[in-house]
Amino acid sequence: MDHYTKEDFRMAQSVGFAITKARNLVVAEMDAALKDLNVTSPQVGILLSMTDGAATTPFELARLLGIDTGLMTRMLDRLETRGLLERSRSVEDRRVVNLTLTKAGRAVAARIPEIAPVVLNARLQKFSSEEFDELRRLLHKFLEA
């Protein structure tokens, strides 16, 4: 089913515009809250994915987070420069780069759950429990398309 046509499409009323604007608001608020940790919200995705064991290579992180490999490389460079992660070549396959959080990286990652829920809860405060569940359900459905 098509929900838009070229005749009735209006950017400011589109789902894409709303999702992008919502993302930008959350990123700005999250970045401000994370300022003392000296990490950005995209870097949070890397740190938490590594902490959870969801990804251990740049390729896995890029796929999981929906980030192109060039941007992923630049973000990993910054995290490595800050001493939050280390790269090493796989002994089985030299083409594979494995990532490991350093002690400092684990310490920063451990602080994120104190900060992120506050930011997200502030943005979601007008949602009932049912609306929150429905929003999550619909976003996951949107991502499956």
Topology:
Layout: H1 15-33, H2 41-51, H3 58-65, H4 69-81, E1 85-89, E2 97-101, H5 103-123, H6 129-144
Antiparallel strand pairs: 1-2
Task: Explain this structure.
The structure is a single chain. The protein has 145 residues and is mostly helical. The chain has one domain (16-144): Arc Repressor Mutant, subunit A, CATH 1.10.10. 61% of the residues lie in helices and 7% in strands. The chain is built from 6 helices and 2 strands. Strand 1 and strand 2 (97-101) form a beta hairpin. Helix 2 packs across helix 5. The protein starts with 14 loop residues before the first helix and ends with a helix. It comes from Caballeronia choica. InterPro entries: HTH_MarR-typ, WH-like_DNA-bd_sf, WH_DNA-bd_sf. This is MarR family transcriptional regulator.
Shape: globular
Query: What proportion of the residues is helical, as a percent range?
Result: 55-70%
* Mean pLDDT reading: 95
Q: How many domains comprise the coordinates?
A: 1
Q: What's the Cα radius of gyration?
A: 18 Å
Structural class: mainly alpha
Strand order of the largest sheet: 1-2
Distance between the termini: 12 Å
State the name of the first-level CATH class.
Mainly Alpha
> What low-confidence regions span 5 or more consecutive residues with pLDDT below 50?
none
Number of helical elements = 6
Number of strands: 2
Range of strand content? 5-15%
CATH architecture: Orthogonal Bundle
Series of secondary-structure elements, N-terminal to C-terminal: HHHHEEHH
Largest sheet: 2 strands, antiparallel
Q: What is the CATH third-level topology name?
A: Arc Repressor Mutant, subunit A
Q: Give me the CATH superfamily.
A: Winged helix-like DNA-binding domain superfamily/Winged helix DNA-binding domain
